[in-house]
Amino acid sequence: MQPRPLNAVVMNLVSGEYVEFPSRSGVTLVGDLFRASKPGSPCLLLCHGMESTRGGTKQTALVERFAPQGMTVVRFDFSFVGDSGGSFEDLTISGEVDDLQGALDFVAELEPSRCIVLGSSLGGTVSLIGAAKRSDMVDAVATIAAPADASLFTEGLSDPDREQWRRSGVRSWRDGTMRSTFLDDVEALDILESVRQLQCPLLVMHGDVDSVVPVSHAHMIVEAAPGPTSLEIFRGVDHRFEEPGALDGLLDCVESWLGDRLGLLGRG
């Protein structure tokens, strides 16, 4: 494996190493590297959800659970959020896939024995698409509450709404705005086609009362995946896994999959 050269900046921090590396789009991405003590250890690359950051609750919990178990862990802010460059209104799903490609280029320089990508919500969708593009680099994928159909992001928009969005070039989105390039990107994406290209092990996790991404999306992903797939549905759990015990159950599920199914824990 010969990754393309990177101009990465690394500074030591008590909780890990602050890192900067370029997205394939050229934007500077900021992240944290938690390096295993043993060279060549497997790497867990984390992808946060839309409007979240690398410092989110699940991201932090994953680092705390798996960095001490012999894995190198990398988390980063996608373009336009957190400490990474860019403006949120320029966000597109394909742009986040470019960010993941840049993160994988950075991970390749660490020369891990294996690379596992774990994404939450939109980060899970990005993980699926990105892994399909990088079968040479990604050895397994895990998703948490990932959308399987990009039309979910524009659900409820009428044709006049879409026409107005394109005419004006921007639309109100939560507390800000979003460019019409997001709409164009969503309408062009076929997430399940990417899933159909995956041959690596896949873990799909979802709450059965998810009010943001219906649990049916998890079943769509599993049905489309041709490789070895594990499905875990959490009863009574919504999108953010904030219910009592939900996050611990999620971590236990990932730990079992990484350790028992993939044999990756306790090596560093």
Q: Summarize this, please?
A:
With 268 residues, the chain is an alpha/beta fold. The protein is 33% helix and 22% strand.
Question: How does this structure look, described?
Answer:
This protein is an alpha/beta fold. It has one domain: 3-Layer(aba) Sandwich (Rossmann fold). The chain has 8 helices and 11 strands. It has helices spanning 57-66, 93-110, 122-133, 159-168, 180-188, 191-195, 216-224, 246-261; strands spanning 9-13, 16-22, 28-34, 43-47, 72-76, 115-120, 140-144, 170-173, 176-179, 202-207, 229-234. Strands 1-2-3-5-4-6-7-10-11 form a 9-stranded mixed β-sheet, with helices on both faces. Strands 8-9 form a two-stranded antiparallel ribbon. Strand 4 (43-47), helix 1 and strand 5 (72-76) form a beta-alpha-beta unit. Helix 2 (93-110) packs across helix 3. The longest helix has 18 residues, at 93-110. It is globular.
